Amino acid sequence: MKNSRISVRDIVVKCCLSCILLLQACDNSNDGVEFESEFYGNAEIIRIDPKNDIDEEYSMKASLIVSSIDYFPLTLPGDMVIGEVAKMIHHNGHVYIFDRHTASVFIFTDEGEFINAIQSKGEGPEEYGDINDFEVEPRSGNVLIYSPMSQKILKYTIKGEYLGAMRNKARLSSFFPISDSAMVMYNSRLPNEYVFESTFPIQPRFFIANDAEEIEKQDLETTYREQLLMYPVSGFGFYEVGDSLRLMESINTVIYKVDLAEGRVYPRFGFDFTNVNPPRLFDMEADELSTFMEDYKNKKVGGWATLYKVSETADFLCVTYFYDKYVNRTFYSKNTKRLINIGSAWINDMDNISMPSVETVTVDGEFIGYFNSNDFSRMVRNNNNKLSQRILDLEKSQRDAESIILVKFRLKDF
């Protein structure tokens, strides 16, 4: 399958405009709701004050907490382009990238060398109609693709060989393989009336399903309400830390620890955004939710912080959240319990260029982000500071590449 050469710059501009419109829709000066600590049980509470806690010194000097940083431009065949990085996973020395624009999963080595691209969109028995999410099997490195249109989760080797599929009628927001025949699944707010027809509109947000389409265990019972579909949910999903499986849920600003034996989830980290906490929509009664959504639609409420993404290593958390039209970053040390709120801007003073957003982590504790090559070239050309020689050389080599530059960095203890 060949892809037309579409400008990465055009795609990025469109994505940025979409994000701005979403954030503007949430723009309001109203305070958030009171933090309800009883919901989080024995979870570790991380308190972030988006209004007052920005550590400006750390924002301007990444070297205060970053011990090393390296750049790896991705090599792509001439007829391929990555249009929109929707998700990135690092596993066993490989980087997997889900490109939403081309409905493909690209695989590279740690150093950015191209290995393969799974591009099997179609209507055949070994093809997927679309991609909503993907995962990597922990033991094999095989790629799992969830296609709502095809109503199945398809499995491919790293070389793109089709291995089979698991039928799935459930509507999912995220999933994760726990064996050859079972998956943990999460559904944020979509109706699953065909799977839970005996209890619907009451349905679980978390459940374990096998390849016979049977529900083995479930948790996070909730009542489906159509009004929730109007609310922009920023982030959710499963991820691994060592031998532990986590589930991040943005609406409740929580990270759960998944207990596979019990088939339940328990709050591991809760996030208290002080006076700009978002509302707990899952706990609202139907009338209250209807009134809230009408006020939200008319911009009478809003302005709170929203959890977007969490990347976790054995020692640190990188917490990304929306607030006041900006994407902000906070780093938290699990060892010292210290928090550094970077804010929306973070400068790599070692190279005199911006730090990237964090997309994923390696098993040995590195954080991974990226720049697209067009944006990187503009940053360099418009930069009035003295840039490091490696940045100048990198920009020169990537000026017309229309590709992605991986950025890996490691944190110091703080």
Brief rundown of the structure:
This is 6-bladed beta-propeller. Keywords: Signal. With 414 residues, the protein is mainly beta.
SSE map:
Layout: H1 8-25, E1 44-47, H2 56-60, E2 66-73, E3 85-91, E4 94-99, E5 104-109, E6 114-118, E7 133-136, E8 143-147, E9 152-156, E10 162-167, E11 174-177, E12 182-186, E13 202-210, E14 215-223, E15 236-241, E16 244-249, E17 254-259, E18 264-272, H3 286-297, E19 306-312, E20 316-323, E21 326-333, E22 339-343, E23 347-348, E24 353-354, E25 358-361, E26 367-372, H4 373-381, H5 389-398, E27 404-411
Helix pairs in contact: 4-5
> What is the arithmetic mean of pLDDT?
90
User: Which structural category do the helix and sheet elements fall into?
Assistant: mainly beta
Rg over CA atoms: 21 Å
Helix amount, in percent? 10-25%
Main-sheet strand order equals 1-18-17-16-15
CATH architecture field:
6 Propeller
CATH class: Mainly Beta
Largest sheet features: 5 strands, mixed
Question: N- to C-terminal separation?
Answer: 48 Å
Q: Per the principal axes of the C-alpha atoms, what is the gross shape? A: globular
InterPro entries: 6-blade_b-propeller_TolB-like
Keywords: Signal
Signal peptide: 1-25
Pfam families: DUF5128 (PF17170)
Question: How would you describe this protein?
Answer:
The protein has 414 residues and is mostly beta strands. Helix content is 13%, strand content 39%. It has a five-stranded mixed beta sheet, with no helix packed on it. Helix 4 (373-381) packs across helix 5. The chain is globular. The model is unreliable at 1-30 (pLDDT under 50).
